[in-house]
Amino acid sequence: MVRVNHEKCLYCAGCVGVCPTDAITLYETIIEIDNEKCVNCMTCVKFCPVGAMEG
User: Fold this and answer.
1) Which of 5, 28, 31, 53 has the fewest CB atoms within 10 Å, i.e. the most exposed one?
2) SS (H, E, C) 5-27
3) How far apart are CA 14 and CA 36, in angstroms?
4) What is the pTM of this model?
């Protein structure tokens, strides 16, 4: 299961754009992952420039 390390996250929304199932949403300074939509493809983990997405 993918999770967000909020201490590392810069809220750049890059993960939102690369998620193939639209499971990630940015709400100002909160990144939320819909676990029902997430298929654990780890695309967001690979894309995150600061390592805030953890799988």
Assistant:
1) 28
2) CCCCCCCCCHHHHHCCCCCEEEE
3) 20
4) 0.88
* C-alpha–C-alpha distance, residues 9 and 30, integer Å: 9
pLDDT of res. 4: 95
Bridge partners of 33, per DSSP, are: 24
Query: What is the C-alpha to C-alpha distance for residues 12 and 49, in angstroms, rounded to an integer?
Result: 9
Read off the tokens for 25: 């949403």
In three-state secondary structure terms, 4 is strand
Question: In the predicted model, what is the mean pLDDT of residues 10-30?
Answer: 94
Taking residues 14-37, report their average pLDDT: 95
Residues 6+ apart with CB under 8 A from 7: none
